[in-house]
Write a structure and sequence with these properties.
This protein has helices at 12-22, 70-78, 109-119, 124-136, 148-155, 159-171, 182-195, 204-217, 260-266, 352-357, 362-384, 399-406, 441-457; strands spanning 2-8, 28-32, 43-46, 49-52, 87-89, 93-98, 101-105, 198-200, 221-224, 228-234, 237-243, 248-256, 280-289, 302-307, 320-328, 341-350, 393-397, 430-432. The chain is of the alpha/beta class and 461 residues long. α1 (12-22) packs across α13 and α2 (70-78) packs across α13 (441-457). The chain starts with a strand and ends with a helix. Bound molecules: flavin-adenine dinucleotide (FAD).
């Protein structure tokens, strides 16, 4: 069997790439290791209830008329009508540096601009210059690393404001410690502050089903529960893959969404020494009865909190760093009906090696998971009020959970610190898409899949 395009990974970048290709040519095949598609953004069942693994909010909200907006470009490229998605915008989100300052923002950019003018008057001009600079800046050009922190330092006299702006952007899209590449900063600034956040109606399963049905209607093929063990190549040309069952599938072109280091392993290439840490996280879900919604903040969708003035975004020495985190209240989007159950979700930085050491001692691992959820709840309660006695179910994903279910090395959600912007890793017919191509989040990873197919694959057909 030989296919024109083989895609490793049925996450959002792989699905989007496959749909894009299937619109123009037959024969594309996605290979997904797990029984379910979605990758980092998937779902599972407990107590007959569906839980989402990743979704807090989708960034890059855009009104229908804004033709150049990434969201609308993506829908056009996939030939998906906006009517098939039900859009619910965030209410308001907040960057809260406890005992210091707070910035509230929404999908109206004026709100955060006004907050900054009122609370950081010395930085008003600098912030205006930053916005003007970003309007003309092309983040998609391949350039050498430029520190966003240093760049902001040259523009904004308030160090606290710099840390506050970086906090949500790093939590939702930085694969490096305590800094971001300026291009990544520009992408995330636009995605979160200038465009804003939303979620589709229903669950992530509904969104994935929509994509999958569309893909199948275009004639695309998917195999789940199949793991690629090796990529076959000669003279920098790929000619197929070997599955863990031993089956060989030949292909003309290969797109890998598995990640840079993960793809190099499949190619049996030597791995360069890793100089910088890969960032890992823990995520906890607390489920409460919907009728208790009134005990939680009524108008906050996401809270990015930090204790103190300085934001530390690095792999912690302890298992988890509770000094900062993300609190998501996924029921607080415009127009959502209260369900029988609601959730509070938390995300904190975690130490992969520490969790890995517990892998062989199941009992200690489980104890640490429960302790992590308990400490996370205590921290959250200081910010959003008491909810612990109302919890009916809770679960925690560690870096090991993420590694196991997505094959991301060290459970690093944002992948390698090194990004390959043109997707080219030195092979004639193999390209990277997804997180390690440099686009983060749901819209980012889907656009990555589409743009890699446009740039490298479609021209060959
Ligand atoms: C806890 C959490 C919260 C998040 N919250 C948000 C959010 O609120 N908003 C947002 O926009 N983004 C969020 N994200 C990030 C978002 O989920 C990712 O950026 C995006 O889904 C990445 O998609 P991808 O296709 O590049 O990678 P992945 O989702 O990792 O997909 C890669 C796929 O490849 C498969 N694979 C890997 N190796 C092999 C192999 N050898 N053979 C076969 N298959 C293989 C994996 O199983 C996986 O399905 C969150 C992620 C997590 C984990």
């Amino acid at each position: 069997m030989k296919v024109p395009l083989l895609i490793i990974g049925g996450g959002l970048s792989g699905l989007a790439a496959a749909i894009r290709f299937a619109r123009f040519a037959p024969g594309v095949l996605i290979l997904e290791k797990h029984s379910r598609i979605g990758g980092l953004n998937s779902y599972y069942y407990r107590n007959n209830r569906l839980f989402e693994t990743g979704l807090h909010a989708i960034t890059n909200y855009a009104e229908p008329g804004n033709k150049k907006a990434p969201l609308n470009r993506l829908l056009r490229q996939l030939k998906l009508s906006r009517d098939r998605l039900d859009f619910h915008q965030q209410l308001q989100s907040e960057i809260l540096f406890q005992d210091c300052e707070s910035l509230v923002f929404s999908n109206n950019f004026e709100q955060i601009r006004d907050e900054i003018v009122g609370k950081f008057p010395h930085s008003t001009d600098g912030f205006a210059k930053l916005v003007t600079f970003l309007e003309d800046y092309n983040p998609f050009k391949t350039t050498i690393f430029c520190s966003a922190r240093q760049f902001l330092h040259n523009l904004l006299p308030d160090q606290l404001l710099i840390d506050m702006l970086l906090c949500p952007l790093m939590y939702y899209g930085s694969s490096i410690e305590d800094d971001m590449d300026l291009s990544q900063f520009a992408i995330m600034f636009r995605a979160i502050f200038q465009e804003g956040m939303f979620r589709p109606g229903g669950t992530i399963k509904d969104f994935l089903d929509l994509l999958l049905n569309h893909y199948h209607s275009l004639g695309g093929n998917l195999r789940t529960g199949v793991e690629v063990k090796e990529i076959l190549h000669k003279n920098q040309i790929v000619h197929g893959v070997v599955l863990s069952s031993g089956e060989v599938i030949e292909c003309d072109n290969l797109l890998s969404t598995a990640g840079l280091a993960e793809t190099q392993t499949l190619l049996q290439e030597p791995q360069p020494d890793q100089k910088t840490a890969r960032l890992a996280f823990v995520e906890s879900i607390f489920q409460l009865p919907g009728k208790r919604r009134h005990i939680l903040p009524p108008d906050r969708t996401i809270l990015f909190y930090n204790s103190g003035r300085k934001f530390h975004y690095k792999s912690p020495s302890d298992l988890v760093d509770f000094r900062s985190g993300v609190i998501c209240l996924p029921f607080n989007f415009e127009g959502l009906q209260t369900q029988e159950y609601i959730e509070v979700r938390s995300t904190h930085l975690a130490n992969y090696a520490g969790w890995k050491n517990l892998e062989t001692d199941r009992e200690r691992y489980m104890v640490q998971k429960i302790e992590t959820a308990g400490r996370s709840k205590d921290v959250l309660e200081k910010i959003i009020g008491k909810f612990g006695s109302d919890i009916v179910y809770q679960d925690t994903f560690t870096p090991l959970t993420i590694e196991r279910f997505t094959a991301k090395k060290e459970g690093a959600i944002y992948g390698s610190p090194q990004k390959i912007k043109d997707g080219n890793i030195g092979y004639t017919n193999l390209f990277l898409a997804g997180t390690d191509q440099g686009f983060m989040g749901i819209i980012g990873s889907m656009l990555s899949g589409v743009s890699m197919v446009n740039q490298h694959i479609l021209s060959r057909f």
